Amino acid sequence: MSGELSPIDKAKFVAAKRAADFVEDGMRVGLGTGSTAAWLVRSLGEMVREEGLKIRGVPTSTRTAQLAREVGIEVISLDEARWLDLTIDGADEFDADLNLIKGGGGALLQEKIVATASDRMIVIADIGKQVETLGAFPLPVEVIPFGWRTTQALIEEMLISMDVLGRSTTLRMNGDRPYVTDEGNHILDLHLKRIGNGRQLALVLNQMPGVVENGLFIDICDMVVVGYGDGRVEIRDINEGTIEHDRMDFLESDNLFSDLAD
Length: 262
Ligand SMILES: O=C(CO)[C@H](O)[C@H](O)COP(=O)(O)O
Known about the structure:
The chain has helices at residues 7-20, 35-51, 62-70, 78-81, 108-116, 148-161, 198-206, 255-261, and strands at residues 28-31, 56-59, 74-75, 86-89, 93-94, 100-101, 121-126, 139-143, 168-171, 173-174, 177-178, 186-191, 211-214, 216-217, 223-227, 233-237, 241-247. The chain is an alpha/beta fold. The chain has two domains: 2-131 and 219-247, Rossmann fold; 139-215, ACT domain (Alpha-Beta Plaits, 2-Layer Sandwich). α1 (7-20) packs across α2. The protein is globular and about 55 Å long. The mean pLDDT is 94. The chain binds ribulose-5-phosphate (5RP). Ribulose-5-phosphate binds next to α2 and α5. Homodimer.
C-alpha cells in the first residue's frame, strides 16, 4: 500500500502530517499551495472530521480553497481573518537560514501576503528542497501582463548590473499560452543558478515597474519540517536549530495515507 507511493510523496506526507500537530483548536490557519501543502490540507480535514478540530483556513490559491472545502475545512478570506495564528506551506528551496524560494506552483503572491500576515510560518518540505545557496530552482517573479516583455528586459539588465551568475528569464507557459495567476498576472522564471544576496535581489526586483512580487521569502519562515523518503521527520527552528530528529511513526499507522495510497 504505502510502498506504492514514491519516496518523495512519503517525505512530503510525513512532513505535512507532523506539521499538522502544530495546529490547535480555534486557530486561523493559512493554507499553502502545492502537492506538499495538499497533504497538509487533507490531514487537517481529517482532524476536523474525525477529531472535531475547529479551525478557519485562509487558502493561498483557488486550488487550495477548493480542496479545503472538499475536506471539510471552514474557509474564510484574509480580509475576514485579518491576522493569522499560523501558516503552513511548501517551498521549492530552503537554506540554512530558512530563507526560501517559492512560487513553483504559481501562487507566490497570495502565499507571501498570507505568510506575512501570520504570527508564525511553518514550511513543510522533502529533504530534496534543502540547498546550501538559493537559486538552482528558477526564481518566480509575478509581473503584470501589460508590457511584460519590457519588464523582462528591465529585469535582465538589472541582473547584468548586479553581476548575477545566470541571467536568462523565461515566461512561464500553460500549454501554448502564458500562465495566468489567480490575480490575472504572468510569471517570469529567472534562471539564476546561485543567488548571492537574496535580500538585496528581492528588494531590487520589487522596485521595478511591472513587478508585482518575487518568490524570495526572506526572514518570513520560522520553522521547516523536513520529511525523508523513509518516513523520518526533522524539525529545524529559526531560533533553536534542529529541535526534533528522526521521528517516524506517521506512515504505517496512518489511515489517510493508506487510503490515498490504495
Ligand atoms: O510555492 C509553491 C506554490 O506556489 C509551492 O509551495 C512550491 O512550489 C512547492 O510545491 P510542492 O509542494 O508541490 O513541491
